[in-house]
Amino acid sequence: MERSNDARVPLTALRELVELADQDGHLTEAAAALGIPQSTMSRRIHGLEDHLGVPLIVPHGRAIGLTKAARELAAAVRMPLHEIGAALTDVAEAADPDHGTIRFGFPLTMGAGEVPDLLAAFAAEHPGIRLDLKQAHGAELVDDLLSGALDLALIIPPPPEVPHEVIGTQRIVAALPADHRLARRAHITVEQLADDEFISTPDSYNLRALTDRWCRAAGFAPQVKTEVTEFSTIREFVGRGMGVALLPRAVRAVDGVAEVELSGSGYVREIALCAAVRRPGRVVSRLRDFIRDRSAEWSTESVSAKQSSEARPRPD
User: Fold this and answer.
1) What is the pLDDT of residues 211-223, one digit of tens each?
2) Quick check: 206 pLDDT over 60?
3) CA 256 to chain centre
4) DSSP readout, 36-48?
5) Number of other residues whose CB lies within 10 A of the CB of residue 205
6) Are 182 and 190 in contact (CB under 8 A)?
7) Are 205 and 230 in contact (CB under 8 A)?
8) Are 246 and 239 in contact (CB under 8 A)?
């Protein structure tokens, strides 16, 4: 396949290649997601092949298989395309920065209390800005930021895959049945829970990795007899005497559950404010700055903003 001498690459075709990669090679679904005819998309992808002089797609059952070159190209241009889109949006919003839409995500563990209060305050201060909200596990929020389905998100812990800044921490406490032998203590150590059965998230989750690490540091491996993905459900089981758990402090008291501080330092998780692009548009920047300014009011412990590139287990 001979490469074109024209150095210009059509951005439309690159955007369609990225969507085709996101749809695992399903041309019909990719075209529908972009709102264009399938024939148009197919023609543009073939045109991109001719331009580059390398094959990008091959037949693969009812779908289309993307070559290694196609997947590498899609991964390389995904963020720059988001950045271009954000820059165009920013120019358009300059004429009316008080109106627009922000797609914002936050963890399942932050669905009560601080985040709803913060978003309600933002909506009251900026009535012309619409908030499209999504509450989901951190791994899903990361995927949505990478695909451009979200503009901003709060994620625990900070994901290295997307631009982010640490805006605070979430303190972890021991959640115990109300009649537990240690329930009336002001503070306990993790070591004192060595003989208890634990309830925790699956081992791919960040809090499970931390629970295992903290217990090992205290000299034992936790006896995790029950695994649950939702923190609220874990508390329900703790309240029924099925075990103990290490969890963020609940916003509201839960019947049958006592929360006891852990002695020592380091029993915290970092909260990150994450963006789909490095320079969001004016409307998105308003929410970003609003969260920055008020994070100290609802974060357990504020910390200085910092970038992180350390690989971590799946966010919660």
Assistant:
1) 999 999 999 999 9
2) yes
3) 31
4) S-HHHHHHHHHHH
5) 20
6) no
7) no
8) no
pLDDT digits (tens, 9 = 90+) for 109-144: 787 778 898 999 999 999 999 999 999 888 899 999
Strand 152-155 to strand 100-107: parallel, antiparallel, or no bridges (unpaired)? parallel
Average pLDDT of span 155-179:
93
Higher pLDDT, 304 or 186: 186
Q: Residue 101 forms beta bridges with which residues?
A: 130
CA distance 152 to 228: 27
DSSP the chain: -PPPS-----HHHHHHHHHHHHTTT-HHHHHHHHTS-HHHHHHHHHHHHHHHTS--EEEETTEEEEPHHHHHHHHHHHHHHHHHHHHHHHHHHTT-TT-EEEEEEEEGGGSSSHHHHHHHHHHHH-TTEEEEEEEE-HHHHHHHHHHTS-SEEEESS--TTS-EEEEEEEEEEEEEETTSTTTT-SEE-GGGGTTSEEEE--TTBHHHHHHHHHHHHTTS--EEEEE-S-HHHHHHHHHTTS-BEEEEPPSS--TTEEEEEESSS--EEEEEEEESSSS--HHHHHHHHHHHHHHHHHSSB-----------SBP-
Q: Give the pLDDT mean for 28-35.
A: 88
What tens digit of pLDDT does each residue of 275-295 get? Answer: 988 888 889 999 999 999 988
